[in-house]
Amino acid sequence: MHRLYNSGFEIEPRIVLISAFYPLPVFTEDLFVIIDFMAIYGHEFVRSMDNLHGDSGFKFSEVCARKQAVREAISKLVRQGFLEVVLADGFEYSVTDLGRKYAGSFESSYASLYRKNLSQIYDNYSQYTEEQLSRIIREKAVYDGKGDE
């Protein structure tokens, strides 16, 4: 049985949406993971936002689990011509014109909410580095875990 939840298949459209609508020129694999997680569980980071996948007690464990799926999704999106590799400080990725067109074709209510969450995450966290964002997620995971005690 194939797993769809947090699979490359599920994450690919979100990676394209991030690369097309989040106002940065390039993304690392880890930055895709961070931004995707923050957009899905937006309420954890901006109280006025919704969690697009509900409120799971295990949401923070998804960050590590998502890394392999994001790696696979990026590889496929590069092969399909939606992303291109930028060699700078390691591998970084940017959206292609084809990727922008593909991202613009997503018209579902989920895609609209996801884009809205991306915008709010950017508005509230654009001044943070990738390392700082990762630290914020780790700290929230520790705090969230202590709430069960």
Dominant shape = globular
The computed structural class is: mainly alpha
Rg (CA only): 15 Å
Question: Roughly what is the average pLDDT, rounded to an integer?
Answer: 85
Give me the strand/helix succession: HHHEEHHH
Quickly count the domains: 1
Task: Please describe the biggest sheet, giving its number of strands, its sense, and whether it closes into a barrel.
Answer: 2 strands, antiparallel
Helix content: 55-70%
Our estimate of the beta-strand percent is 5-15%
Low-confidence runs of at least 5 consecutive residues: 1-5
**SS summary, helix count:** 6
Distance separating the two termini: 35 Å
Q: How many beta-strand elements? A: 2
Q: Strand sequence of the main sheet, in spatial order?
A: 1-2
Question: What can you tell me about this protein's structure?
Answer:
This protein has one domain. The chain is 58% helix and 8% strand. The chain has 6 helices and 2 strands. The N and C termini lie far apart (35 Å).
